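Hey, does this match?
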Amino acid sequence: MSDLLNQLAVSLASGATRVVDLTHTLDPDFPVIILPPEFGQCARFRMEEVSAYDHRGPAWKWHNISMSEHTGTHFDAPIHWISGRDIAGGAVDEIDVSAFVGPVVVIDCSTGAASDDDFELTPEIIAQWEAENGLIPAGSWVLMRTDWSKKRGADYLNMAEDGPHSPGPTPAAIELLLQRNIRGFGTETVGTDAGQGMHYTPPYPAHYLLHGAGKYGLQCLNNLDKLPATGAILIAAPLKIKGGTGSPLRVLALVTEAAK
Protein backbone atom coordinates (compact mmCIF):
# COMPACT_ATOMS: atom_id res chain seq x y z
CA MET A 1 0.00 0.00 0.00
CA SER A 2 1.35 3.43 -0.89
CA ASP A 3 2.19 5.87 1.90
CA LEU A 4 -0.67 8.16 0.84
CA LEU A 5 -3.29 5.40 0.87
CA ASN A 6 -1.89 4.03 4.12
CA GLN A 7 -2.22 7.48 5.70
CA LEU A 8 -5.82 7.64 4.51
CA ALA A 9 -6.60 4.20 5.95
CA VAL A 10 -5.09 5.18 9.31
CA SER A 11 -6.96 8.50 9.27
CA LEU A 12 -10.27 6.76 8.57
CA ALA A 13 -9.65 4.15 11.24
CA SER A 14 -8.79 6.77 13.85
CA GLY A 15 -11.75 8.98 13.00
CA ALA A 16 -9.52 11.88 11.99
CA THR A 17 -11.17 11.59 8.58
CA ARG A 18 -14.94 11.33 8.77
CA VAL A 19 -17.29 9.93 6.13
CA VAL A 20 -20.37 12.13 5.73
CA ASP A 21 -23.43 10.73 3.98
CA LEU A 22 -24.94 13.32 1.62
CA THR A 23 -27.76 11.03 0.49
CA HIS A 24 -31.48 10.94 1.23
CA THR A 25 -33.12 7.59 2.02
CA LEU A 26 -34.98 6.20 -0.99
CA ASP A 27 -38.60 5.52 -0.12
CA PRO A 28 -41.94 5.81 -1.93
CA ASP A 29 -42.72 9.14 -0.25
CA PHE A 30 -39.59 10.99 -1.40
CA PRO A 31 -40.71 13.75 -3.83
CA VAL A 32 -39.75 13.69 -7.49
CA ILE A 33 -39.77 16.52 -10.00
CA ILE A 34 -43.20 17.27 -11.50
CA LEU A 35 -43.31 18.39 -15.13
CA PRO A 36 -46.24 19.96 -16.98
CA PRO A 37 -48.88 17.26 -17.67
CA GLU A 38 -48.17 17.12 -21.41
CA PHE A 39 -44.70 15.69 -20.69
CA GLY A 40 -43.62 12.27 -19.43
CA GLN A 41 -43.18 12.08 -15.66
CA CYS A 42 -40.43 10.92 -13.33
CA ALA A 43 -41.33 7.68 -11.50
CA ARG A 44 -41.14 7.55 -7.72
CA PHE A 45 -39.25 4.79 -5.94
CA ARG A 46 -41.19 1.55 -5.54
CA MET A 47 -40.20 -1.62 -3.66
CA GLU A 48 -41.99 -4.96 -3.85
CA GLU A 49 -41.23 -7.83 -1.51
CA VAL A 50 -40.28 -11.02 -3.36
CA SER A 51 -39.82 -13.24 -0.30
CA ALA A 52 -39.19 -12.88 3.42
CA TYR A 53 -37.92 -16.18 4.85
CA ASP A 54 -41.25 -17.78 3.90
CA HIS A 55 -42.84 -20.11 1.33
CA ARG A 56 -41.68 -17.76 -1.44
CA GLY A 57 -38.05 -18.21 -0.34
CA PRO A 58 -37.46 -19.95 2.99
CA ALA A 59 -33.89 -18.81 3.67
CA TRP A 60 -33.78 -15.33 2.15
CA LYS A 61 -35.45 -11.94 1.93
CA TRP A 62 -35.30 -9.65 -1.10
CA HIS A 63 -37.18 -7.03 -3.10
CA ASN A 64 -37.81 -5.89 -6.63
CA ILE A 65 -37.35 -2.15 -7.02
CA SER A 66 -38.28 0.36 -9.72
CA MET A 67 -37.75 4.08 -10.18
CA SER A 68 -36.61 6.72 -12.65
CA GLU A 69 -32.91 7.31 -13.28
CA HIS A 70 -33.58 10.72 -11.71
CA THR A 71 -35.33 9.73 -8.48
CA GLY A 72 -33.98 10.62 -5.02
CA THR A 73 -30.38 11.72 -4.59
CA HIS A 74 -29.15 11.27 -8.14
CA PHE A 75 -26.52 11.95 -10.79
CA ASP A 76 -27.09 13.71 -14.13
CA ALA A 77 -24.89 12.66 -17.06
CA PRO A 78 -24.29 14.98 -20.04
CA ILE A 79 -26.71 13.07 -22.30
CA HIS A 80 -29.54 13.86 -19.88
CA TRP A 81 -29.96 17.21 -21.67
CA ILE A 82 -30.32 18.04 -25.35
CA SER A 83 -27.21 20.23 -25.20
CA GLY A 84 -25.12 17.22 -24.15
CA ARG A 85 -26.61 14.57 -26.40
CA ASP A 86 -23.55 14.51 -28.70
CA ILE A 87 -20.94 14.61 -25.92
CA ALA A 88 -18.52 11.70 -26.35
CA GLY A 89 -18.68 9.38 -23.36
CA GLY A 90 -21.72 11.21 -22.08
CA ALA A 91 -23.69 8.26 -20.66
CA VAL A 92 -23.16 7.03 -17.09
CA ASP A 93 -21.57 3.74 -18.23
CA GLU A 94 -19.12 5.60 -20.47
CA ILE A 95 -17.80 8.20 -18.00
CA ASP A 96 -14.27 7.56 -16.74
CA VAL A 97 -14.58 6.44 -13.12
CA SER A 98 -11.97 8.98 -12.05
CA ALA A 99 -14.64 11.64 -12.62
CA PHE A 100 -16.67 10.30 -9.69
CA VAL A 101 -14.08 11.18 -7.03
CA GLY A 102 -12.79 14.70 -6.55
CA PRO A 103 -12.49 17.81 -4.39
CA VAL A 104 -15.61 19.64 -3.36
CA VAL A 105 -16.36 23.23 -2.44
CA VAL A 106 -19.56 24.37 -0.74
CA ILE A 107 -21.07 27.80 -1.33
CA ASP A 108 -23.35 28.60 1.60
CA CYS A 109 -26.57 30.24 0.40
CA SER A 110 -28.67 29.03 3.33
CA THR A 111 -29.32 32.46 4.85
CA GLY A 112 -30.63 33.88 1.59
CA ALA A 113 -32.68 30.77 0.82
CA ALA A 114 -34.28 30.91 4.28
CA SER A 115 -35.95 34.22 3.42
CA ASP A 116 -36.42 33.80 -0.34
CA ASP A 117 -37.65 30.56 -1.92
CA ASP A 118 -36.37 31.80 -5.30
CA PHE A 119 -32.93 32.78 -4.02
CA GLU A 120 -30.32 32.94 -6.79
CA LEU A 121 -26.68 31.93 -6.79
CA THR A 122 -25.03 34.78 -8.72
CA PRO A 123 -21.50 35.61 -9.91
CA GLU A 124 -21.32 38.19 -7.11
CA ILE A 125 -21.91 35.49 -4.49
CA ILE A 126 -19.27 33.29 -6.11
CA ALA A 127 -16.83 36.23 -6.19
CA GLN A 128 -17.42 36.86 -2.48
CA TRP A 129 -16.84 33.16 -1.74
CA GLU A 130 -13.59 33.25 -3.71
CA ALA A 131 -12.45 36.41 -1.93
CA GLU A 132 -12.72 34.47 1.34
CA ASN A 133 -11.57 31.03 0.19
CA GLY A 134 -9.51 31.46 -2.98
CA LEU A 135 -10.39 30.62 -6.58
CA ILE A 136 -12.50 27.52 -7.07
CA PRO A 137 -9.98 24.85 -8.12
CA ALA A 138 -10.35 23.23 -11.52
CA GLY A 139 -11.93 19.80 -11.34
CA SER A 140 -13.99 20.60 -8.24
CA TRP A 141 -17.54 19.67 -7.48
CA VAL A 142 -19.37 22.88 -6.54
CA LEU A 143 -22.32 22.41 -4.18
CA MET A 144 -24.92 25.10 -3.47
CA ARG A 145 -25.95 24.80 0.17
CA THR A 146 -29.47 26.08 0.87
CA ASP A 147 -30.60 23.74 3.69
CA TRP A 148 -33.53 22.87 1.38
CA SER A 149 -32.88 19.23 2.27
CA LYS A 150 -34.45 19.86 5.68
CA LYS A 151 -37.85 20.37 4.03
CA ARG A 152 -40.29 17.48 3.72
CA GLY A 153 -43.33 16.56 1.65
CA ALA A 154 -45.06 19.31 -0.31
CA ASP A 155 -42.69 21.94 1.11
CA TYR A 156 -39.78 20.27 -0.69
CA LEU A 157 -41.24 20.78 -4.18
CA ASN A 158 -42.98 24.03 -3.10
CA MET A 159 -45.45 23.98 -5.99
CA ALA A 160 -47.56 27.06 -6.79
CA GLU A 161 -49.93 27.91 -9.64
CA ASP A 162 -46.97 29.02 -11.74
CA GLY A 163 -44.88 25.95 -10.94
CA PRO A 164 -42.24 25.10 -8.31
CA HIS A 165 -40.30 27.69 -6.34
CA SER A 166 -36.84 26.72 -5.07
CA PRO A 167 -33.34 28.27 -5.12
CA GLY A 168 -30.85 27.81 -7.94
CA PRO A 169 -28.09 29.37 -10.04
CA THR A 170 -28.40 32.11 -12.64
CA PRO A 171 -27.03 31.52 -16.16
CA ALA A 172 -24.17 33.90 -15.41
CA ALA A 173 -23.26 31.92 -12.29
CA ILE A 174 -23.04 28.69 -14.25
CA GLU A 175 -20.99 30.39 -16.96
CA LEU A 176 -18.53 31.59 -14.32
CA LEU A 177 -18.27 28.11 -12.81
CA LEU A 178 -17.57 26.71 -16.26
CA GLN A 179 -14.75 29.25 -16.60
CA ARG A 180 -13.32 27.65 -13.46
CA ASN A 181 -13.53 24.27 -15.26
CA ILE A 182 -15.52 22.62 -12.49
CA ARG A 183 -16.30 18.90 -12.46
CA GLY A 184 -19.99 19.37 -11.78
CA PHE A 185 -22.62 21.24 -9.78
CA GLY A 186 -24.89 19.97 -7.03
CA THR A 187 -27.90 21.16 -5.06
CA GLU A 188 -30.18 20.15 -2.22
CA THR A 189 -33.27 20.75 -4.35
CA VAL A 190 -35.00 18.37 -6.76
CA GLY A 191 -32.99 19.73 -9.70
CA THR A 192 -29.76 21.59 -10.31
CA ASP A 193 -31.83 24.54 -11.58
CA ALA A 194 -34.07 26.92 -9.70
CA GLY A 195 -37.72 25.94 -9.53
CA GLN A 196 -38.50 28.82 -11.89
CA GLY A 197 -35.47 28.05 -14.06
CA MET A 198 -37.61 27.85 -17.20
CA HIS A 199 -37.71 31.68 -17.28
CA TYR A 200 -33.95 32.16 -17.68
CA THR A 201 -32.10 32.46 -20.99
CA PRO A 202 -31.29 29.72 -21.75
CA PRO A 203 -34.07 27.93 -19.88
CA TYR A 204 -32.78 25.64 -17.12
CA PRO A 205 -29.23 27.01 -17.43
CA ALA A 206 -27.58 24.54 -15.05
CA HIS A 207 -28.78 21.65 -17.16
CA TYR A 208 -28.25 23.30 -20.52
CA LEU A 209 -24.86 24.87 -19.91
CA LEU A 210 -23.32 22.21 -17.67
CA HIS A 211 -24.24 19.21 -19.77
CA GLY A 212 -23.43 21.02 -23.00
CA ALA A 213 -19.92 21.42 -21.58
CA GLY A 214 -19.70 17.75 -20.63
CA LYS A 215 -20.10 18.42 -16.89
CA TYR A 216 -22.19 16.56 -14.31
CA GLY A 217 -25.04 17.30 -11.93
CA LEU A 218 -26.04 16.11 -8.46
CA GLN A 219 -29.52 16.69 -7.04
CA CYS A 220 -31.42 16.04 -3.83
CA LEU A 221 -28.25 16.17 -1.73
CA ASN A 222 -28.46 16.04 2.05
CA ASN A 223 -26.35 17.21 5.01
CA LEU A 224 -24.44 19.93 3.18
CA ASP A 225 -24.39 21.83 6.48
CA LYS A 226 -21.92 19.18 7.69
CA LEU A 227 -19.32 20.04 5.05
CA PRO A 228 -16.62 22.72 5.17
CA ALA A 229 -16.34 25.36 2.45
CA THR A 230 -13.20 23.65 1.14
CA GLY A 231 -11.03 20.65 1.87
CA ALA A 232 -13.43 17.72 1.53
CA ILE A 233 -13.39 14.97 -1.09
CA LEU A 234 -16.60 13.86 -2.79
CA ILE A 235 -17.38 10.31 -3.93
CA ALA A 236 -20.38 10.19 -6.28
CA ALA A 237 -20.50 7.02 -8.40
CA PRO A 238 -23.70 6.34 -10.35
CA LEU A 239 -24.89 2.86 -11.30
CA LYS A 240 -23.29 1.58 -14.49
CA ILE A 241 -26.45 1.70 -16.61
CA LYS A 242 -25.87 1.08 -20.32
CA GLY A 243 -26.74 4.32 -22.11
CA GLY A 244 -27.97 5.77 -18.82
CA THR A 245 -28.79 9.47 -18.56
CA GLY A 246 -28.39 9.44 -14.79
CA SER A 247 -28.72 7.27 -11.73
CA PRO A 248 -29.68 7.23 -8.06
CA LEU A 249 -26.49 6.91 -6.03
CA ARG A 250 -24.94 7.11 -2.57
CA VAL A 251 -22.97 10.36 -2.28
CA LEU A 252 -20.23 10.38 0.36
CA ALA A 253 -17.80 13.06 1.49
CA LEU A 254 -14.46 12.56 3.24
CA VAL A 255 -13.86 15.34 5.74
CA THR A 256 -10.90 15.99 8.04
CA GLU A 257 -10.65 18.31 11.00
CA ALA A 258 -8.17 20.39 8.99
CA ALA A 259 -10.75 21.12 6.27
CA LYS A 260 -11.60 24.80 6.05
